[in-house]
Design brief:
α1 packs antiparallel against α2. Among the domains are: about 80 residues; about 40 residues, no CATH class. The chain starts with a helix and ends in a 10-residue tail after the last helix. The protein is about 55% helix and about 5% strand. The model has no long low-confidence stretch (mean pLDDT about 75). By secondary structure, the protein is mainly alpha-helical. The protein is built from four helices and two strands; from the N terminus they run αααββα. The longest helix has about 45 residues. The radius of gyration is 43 Å and the shape is elongated.
Length: about 170
Amino acid sequence: MVERALRHIRKLGRASWWRFMFGTLLIGIGLYVFNRSQNQMERAAMANADAKQPARAKTAFEPTDWNVAPIAAIYAGILVLLVVSSFAITIAYPNTLPDVSRSLFINPRGPRLQTNDAADLRRFRAEVDKRLNGYYWIDKQKGVVHIPISEAMLKLARSGIEGFPKGQP
């Protein structure tokens, strides 16, 4: 189920990318054609400008506008670079997701609330008291037994620790 949802998200991400690229290309071509037709109309109107020389010979004007072909070539080059780089990234990282999914697939459990503080504290102290003051096996095969803490303290006081002076019981 999750795999199918992830594939659907990937497919939508790719489709929207291609729509964006196609729309950008159409807008670029439209702007180029529109500007080109306007420039041709202006040039036709300026064709007679060479016949009349202004009164001041040093004052001049631009007979033509900038050539749009290099600008369009740069635009097309950048567009091709973007398309090629998007393919390169898609091929280099095939298992990545297009975006992080913000939907929850697993509902988290609610918090565990403490409903009876006094009973919980009594139960906790009883468990701790049982572990500290009781006898039980730690490892039966090796013969390791847990002894109450008070008895362990007395035994340690009698035998002492190596390197420390012995105390009196």
